[in-house]
Amino acid sequence: TILGAGEPLPGAQVELVSDSGRFSATADDSGNYSVRVPAGAYRIAARADGYVSTARAVVDRRNGFPSLAIDDALGAIQSAMLVAVADRTHVDLELSPAASISGVVRNAAGQPQQDVLVSAFTLDTTTFEPTLLRAALRSSLARTDAQGAFALDVPAGEVVLRASREIAAHQPQAVRPLFLEPGAAQRVELTLDEVCRVSGRVVDERGQAIEQGTIEIASQRNGTRAFKPRGYFENGRFTYLHDHTGAFYLRVWPWRSSPSPAIELDCQPGSDWSDMRLEVPRGEPDLSGVVLDEENSPVANAFVDVIALDPTLQSQQERTDSQGRFEVYQLEPGSYRVSAIVPDLGVATAETMSPSSGVRLRLSGTGTLEGEVEGMTDGNLEIVINELLNTHGDDTVSLAGQMHYAPIQRTVPVVDGRFRLDGLPACVVVGEAKSPLGAKFFQAQVEAGKATKVVFALDAG
Fold this sequence. Notes:
Elements: E1 2-4, E2 7-8, E3 13-18, E4 21-26, E5 40-48, E6 51-52, E7 54-56, H1 68-73, E8 81-84, E9 93-106, E10 117-124, E11 131-135, E12 141-143, E13 149-155, E14 157-164, E15 174-180, E16 185-191, E17 196-203, E18 212-218, E19 220-221, E20 224-225, E21 228-234, E22 237-242, E23 246-254, E24 263-267, E25 271-279, E26 287-292, E27 303-308, E28 316-319, E29 325-328, E30 334-342, E31 346-354, E32 356-362, E33 366-374, E34 379-392, E35 395-398, E36 408-414, E37 418-425, E38 428-435, E39 438-445, E40 451-457
Parallel strand pairs: 1-9, 8-36, 9-16, 17-25, 26-32, 33-40
Antiparallel strand pairs: 1-2, 3-4, 3-5, 5-6, 5-8, 6-9, 7-11, 9-13, 10-11, 10-12, 10-14, 14-15, 17-22, 18-21, 18-23, 19-20, 23-24, 26-29, 27-28, 27-30, 30-31, 33-37, 34-35, 34-36, 34-38, 38-39
């Protein structure tokens, strides 16, 4: 059943998306729906007049801003994962009251701006820590048309509206905070400035394109340069838009590589540097190692966080290659905690010194959370894992939240008061279980290949 404010919503549109395709249904006059799908894992969401499904905003692990490409990769649905291996009943969806935003994006000269990415996020203050929500269907994300116009449907409440150019790293943004009552229709105009543009290629010493990495920017202050990530490049090419006049420094830092030498640019209105060539020199890593799964097979494309244990040192983020290898460059001498989180394979941590080599991160594997929900016979339970803790020696180490970590979200069936959730990283998990009956914060130790028993007494308050 599709519900809004506890009442059925006739005619609501339901969508389920997985790697195997997209499936949809329309709720009947009683708000009930039914849809046949192949067995698999799905993201499910719905919308109706004046209501939208909501979900946590997706975090791009590479420090990028949410983009249409990210939504396309997730089938334009951001909601919790629903696993269907048999018929599922009582998959009820409670929708949130919606509001609408429309308007125009212009530049400083008043000219309409086409192909600007406009997105909206709603602050959810009901959770233990305030989080950003967005409409689970792609109604809170749009591109402007030739007239610079856009239209969004968003969860009502405290809304942050942003406009940026998706094509560039760390685009100049127009940001507007709003408060929208349910059913409100807000009209806004946004001004998006760009002072100068830099674009070009990223190559190695042989002139070969380097596929991926980050773009970093710094200004000169007190004789020092403090570089900060400002997005990422892909396919050996980059575009960066800068919105402040004056001198700044730009460099790129590919995965498993040294950064390129910084170039100094003087940004003035209308400045445009195109087809620049940033060459990345060869170097020797200060720290290297490998990420392996529970069976000792290499894990490709895993993110590795290198956290300085001395607050005066800088932390870094890396990524493994196709053989599970990682290399960290320009890492100052000192003590570091190296960790990897791969939700389907587990977590791993190690403490090491820089310089060093041969660091081995063996993922913990996964386990199961199963148990009872007091007061519920049949229905669905949404479980959100916000934090992962791992024991290292005598210390308990927080893994999630060190860099950019996307919470694990799953919707599981409750049958005869019992549920089962497979595939959780083997470590201590901290999260929240939610249903229309209420919510419960919990902490549990998940062991590889085993089932951890829990009992949830949902608190309606």
